[in-house]
Amino acid sequence: MIYDGNDLSAVLTVEDVSRPVMPPVSGGALEPLEIKVIVRLSAPAVGHREQKAALEAKRRMAATALYRDGPRPLVLPDAPDVRLMAELSGATDLERVGYTASAELTFRCEDPVAYGATRKKAVDGSGTLNVGGNWPTRPRVSVYAGSPSATVAVDGKALRLTGIPDGEGPVLVDCGAETATKGGEDVAVSILSDFFELSPGRHAATCTAPAEFEWEERWL
Question: Which long-range contacts (CB under 8 A, 24 or more apart) does 2-5 make?
Protein backbone atom coordinates (compact mmCIF):
# COMPACT_ATOMS: atom_id res chain seq x y z
CA MET A 1 0.00 0.00 0.00
CA ILE A 2 1.29 3.43 -0.96
CA TYR A 3 -0.27 6.39 0.83
CA ASP A 4 0.66 10.01 0.21
CA GLY A 5 3.68 8.78 -1.74
CA ASN A 6 4.96 6.57 1.09
CA ASP A 7 5.34 2.80 0.66
CA LEU A 8 4.00 1.32 3.90
CA SER A 9 5.15 -2.26 3.28
CA ALA A 10 7.83 -1.94 5.95
CA VAL A 11 5.18 -0.99 8.52
CA LEU A 12 2.19 -3.16 7.63
CA THR A 13 1.04 -5.87 5.23
CA VAL A 14 -2.25 -5.65 3.32
CA GLU A 15 -4.10 -8.95 3.61
CA ASP A 16 -7.37 -8.07 1.91
CA VAL A 17 -9.12 -5.16 0.17
CA SER A 18 -12.91 -4.92 0.09
CA ARG A 19 -14.45 -2.44 -2.32
CA PRO A 20 -17.87 -2.29 -4.05
CA VAL A 21 -18.30 -2.95 -7.76
CA MET A 22 -18.87 0.77 -8.16
CA PRO A 23 -19.48 3.79 -5.89
CA PRO A 24 -23.01 4.40 -4.60
CA VAL A 25 -25.28 6.44 -6.86
CA SER A 26 -27.91 8.95 -5.71
CA GLY A 27 -30.01 11.01 -8.09
CA GLY A 28 -27.79 10.01 -10.99
CA ALA A 29 -24.64 11.32 -9.24
CA LEU A 30 -21.81 9.33 -7.68
CA GLU A 31 -21.62 9.35 -3.90
CA PRO A 32 -18.41 9.07 -1.81
CA LEU A 33 -16.73 5.67 -1.81
CA GLU A 34 -15.58 3.66 1.22
CA ILE A 35 -12.90 0.97 0.98
CA LYS A 36 -12.10 -1.56 3.71
CA VAL A 37 -8.50 -2.75 4.02
CA ILE A 38 -7.40 -5.59 6.30
CA VAL A 39 -3.81 -5.03 7.43
CA ARG A 40 -1.37 -6.94 9.61
CA LEU A 41 1.46 -5.58 11.71
CA SER A 42 4.36 -7.87 12.52
CA ALA A 43 7.08 -7.23 15.11
CA PRO A 44 8.98 -10.38 16.16
CA ALA A 45 10.55 -10.17 19.61
CA VAL A 46 11.61 -12.52 22.39
CA GLY A 47 9.42 -12.40 25.48
CA HIS A 48 5.80 -11.39 26.00
CA ARG A 49 6.51 -7.87 27.23
CA GLU A 50 9.00 -7.30 24.41
CA GLN A 51 6.44 -8.49 21.85
CA LYS A 52 3.83 -6.07 23.17
CA ALA A 53 6.31 -3.20 23.14
CA ALA A 54 7.46 -4.03 19.59
CA LEU A 55 3.87 -4.14 18.32
CA GLU A 56 3.09 -0.87 20.04
CA ALA A 57 6.07 0.71 18.30
CA LYS A 58 4.77 -0.59 14.94
CA ARG A 59 1.28 0.73 15.76
CA ARG A 60 2.70 4.19 16.36
CA MET A 61 4.62 4.05 13.08
CA ALA A 62 1.46 3.01 11.24
CA ALA A 63 -0.61 5.75 12.90
CA THR A 64 1.96 8.38 11.90
CA ALA A 65 2.01 7.13 8.31
CA LEU A 66 -1.79 7.00 7.99
CA TYR A 67 -2.81 10.27 9.64
CA ARG A 68 -3.36 13.16 7.25
CA ASP A 69 -5.48 16.29 7.54
CA GLY A 70 -7.20 15.70 4.20
CA PRO A 71 -7.40 13.32 1.22
CA ARG A 72 -4.11 11.98 -0.11
CA PRO A 73 -3.26 9.63 -3.01
CA LEU A 74 -3.84 5.98 -2.09
CA VAL A 75 -2.58 3.04 -4.18
CA LEU A 76 -3.75 -0.41 -3.11
CA PRO A 77 -2.21 -3.73 -4.17
CA ASP A 78 -5.39 -4.99 -5.87
CA ALA A 79 -5.28 -2.02 -8.30
CA PRO A 80 -1.66 -0.81 -8.55
CA ASP A 81 -2.23 1.14 -11.79
CA VAL A 82 -4.59 3.74 -10.30
CA ARG A 83 -4.77 5.98 -7.25
CA LEU A 84 -7.68 7.33 -5.24
CA MET A 85 -7.79 10.54 -3.22
CA ALA A 86 -8.54 9.01 0.17
CA GLU A 87 -8.58 9.81 3.86
CA LEU A 88 -8.57 7.33 6.73
CA SER A 89 -11.99 7.55 8.37
CA GLY A 90 -11.93 4.61 10.77
CA ALA A 91 -9.92 1.70 12.18
CA THR A 92 -10.85 -1.30 14.31
CA ASP A 93 -9.01 -2.42 17.45
CA LEU A 94 -5.84 -4.39 16.89
CA GLU A 95 -6.34 -8.14 17.27
CA ARG A 96 -3.03 -9.31 18.73
CA VAL A 97 -1.81 -12.88 18.36
CA GLY A 98 1.76 -13.38 19.50
CA TYR A 99 4.01 -10.94 17.68
CA THR A 100 1.43 -10.03 15.01
CA ALA A 101 -1.74 -7.96 15.06
CA SER A 102 -4.46 -7.31 12.49
CA ALA A 103 -6.97 -4.50 12.03
CA GLU A 104 -9.45 -3.18 9.49
CA LEU A 105 -8.89 0.29 8.06
CA THR A 106 -11.63 2.30 6.37
CA PHE A 107 -10.68 4.86 3.73
CA ARG A 108 -13.22 7.41 2.51
CA CYS A 109 -12.98 8.88 -0.98
CA GLU A 110 -15.12 11.97 -1.48
CA ASP A 111 -14.03 11.83 -5.12
CA PRO A 112 -14.86 8.20 -5.94
CA VAL A 113 -13.29 8.08 -9.42
CA ALA A 114 -9.69 6.86 -9.52
CA TYR A 115 -6.78 8.58 -11.26
CA GLY A 116 -4.66 6.61 -13.72
CA ALA A 117 -1.74 7.43 -16.00
CA THR A 118 -0.81 11.02 -16.82
CA ARG A 119 -0.83 11.80 -20.55
CA LYS A 120 0.61 14.74 -22.48
CA LYS A 121 0.09 15.98 -26.03
CA ALA A 122 1.75 18.97 -27.71
CA VAL A 123 -0.42 20.77 -30.26
CA ASP A 124 0.86 23.39 -32.70
CA GLY A 125 -2.03 24.49 -34.88
CA SER A 126 -4.05 21.27 -34.71
CA GLY A 127 -3.81 17.76 -33.33
CA THR A 128 -5.69 14.81 -31.87
CA LEU A 129 -6.04 14.01 -28.17
CA ASN A 130 -6.45 10.29 -27.46
CA VAL A 131 -8.02 10.02 -24.02
CA GLY A 132 -8.04 6.69 -22.19
CA GLY A 133 -9.85 5.61 -19.04
CA ASN A 134 -13.61 5.17 -18.72
CA TRP A 135 -14.61 8.49 -17.11
CA PRO A 136 -14.31 12.15 -18.21
CA THR A 137 -11.23 14.10 -17.15
CA ARG A 138 -10.40 17.80 -17.05
CA PRO A 139 -7.03 18.73 -18.57
CA ARG A 140 -4.42 21.34 -17.84
CA VAL A 141 -3.17 23.33 -20.84
CA SER A 142 0.07 25.30 -21.16
CA VAL A 143 -0.37 27.95 -23.87
CA TYR A 144 2.80 29.58 -25.23
CA ALA A 145 1.24 32.78 -26.52
CA GLY A 146 3.36 35.39 -28.28
CA SER A 147 0.60 38.00 -28.34
CA PRO A 148 -1.93 39.44 -25.88
CA SER A 149 -4.60 36.94 -26.92
CA ALA A 150 -4.86 33.27 -27.85
CA THR A 151 -7.57 30.71 -28.48
CA VAL A 152 -7.53 26.97 -27.77
CA ALA A 153 -10.41 24.78 -28.88
CA VAL A 154 -11.42 21.14 -28.41
CA ASP A 155 -14.09 19.66 -30.67
CA GLY A 156 -15.07 23.22 -31.64
CA LYS A 157 -15.53 24.44 -28.05
CA ALA A 158 -13.22 27.44 -27.68
CA LEU A 159 -11.31 28.86 -24.73
CA ARG A 160 -10.34 32.49 -25.46
CA LEU A 161 -7.57 34.13 -23.44
CA THR A 162 -7.24 37.93 -23.47
CA GLY A 163 -4.97 40.51 -21.90
CA ILE A 164 -2.08 38.07 -21.63
CA PRO A 165 0.80 39.85 -19.89
CA ASP A 166 4.27 40.10 -21.44
CA GLY A 167 7.07 37.92 -20.19
CA GLU A 168 8.50 34.45 -20.49
CA GLY A 169 6.53 31.32 -19.73
CA PRO A 170 3.16 29.90 -20.73
CA VAL A 171 -0.37 30.71 -19.70
CA LEU A 172 -1.40 27.87 -17.38
CA VAL A 173 -5.02 26.85 -17.86
CA ASP A 174 -6.52 24.47 -15.28
CA CYS A 175 -9.85 23.23 -16.59
CA GLY A 176 -10.68 21.52 -13.30
CA ALA A 177 -10.21 24.66 -11.24
CA GLU A 178 -11.41 26.84 -14.16
CA THR A 179 -8.47 29.23 -13.85
CA ALA A 180 -5.91 30.77 -16.20
CA THR A 181 -2.68 32.34 -14.92
CA LYS A 182 0.72 33.48 -16.15
CA GLY A 183 3.56 33.96 -13.70
CA GLY A 184 1.03 33.82 -10.87
CA GLU A 185 -1.05 36.61 -12.41
CA ASP A 186 -4.65 35.98 -13.49
CA VAL A 187 -5.34 35.96 -17.22
CA ALA A 188 -8.78 37.02 -18.44
CA VAL A 189 -10.96 34.38 -20.07
CA SER A 190 -13.77 35.35 -22.43
CA ILE A 191 -17.21 34.94 -20.86
CA LEU A 192 -18.24 32.77 -23.81
CA SER A 193 -15.37 30.33 -23.26
CA ASP A 194 -15.62 26.68 -22.27
CA PHE A 195 -13.24 24.97 -19.86
CA PHE A 196 -12.85 21.55 -21.44
CA GLU A 197 -13.94 18.20 -20.12
CA LEU A 198 -12.47 15.31 -22.10
CA SER A 199 -14.50 12.13 -22.32
CA PRO A 200 -12.69 8.88 -23.21
CA GLY A 201 -11.95 8.71 -26.93
CA ARG A 202 -10.48 10.93 -29.66
CA HIS A 203 -10.79 14.72 -29.65
CA ALA A 204 -9.78 17.32 -32.23
CA ALA A 205 -7.72 20.17 -30.73
CA THR A 206 -6.82 23.47 -32.42
CA CYS A 207 -4.89 26.47 -31.14
CA THR A 208 -3.63 29.85 -32.32
CA ALA A 209 -0.43 29.40 -30.30
CA PRO A 210 1.61 26.30 -29.41
CA ALA A 211 0.05 24.46 -26.49
CA GLU A 212 0.59 21.36 -24.41
CA PHE A 213 -2.34 19.39 -23.00
CA GLU A 214 -1.89 17.27 -19.88
CA TRP A 215 -4.50 15.06 -18.21
CA GLU A 216 -4.92 12.05 -15.96
CA GLU A 217 -6.95 9.09 -17.14
CA ARG A 218 -9.93 8.55 -14.85
CA TRP A 219 -11.26 5.11 -13.96
CA LEU A 220 -14.55 4.20 -12.31
Answer: 2/73, 2/74, 2/75, 2/83, 3/65, 3/66, 3/68, 3/72, 3/73, 3/74, 3/75, 3/86, 4/68, 4/72, 4/73, 5/73
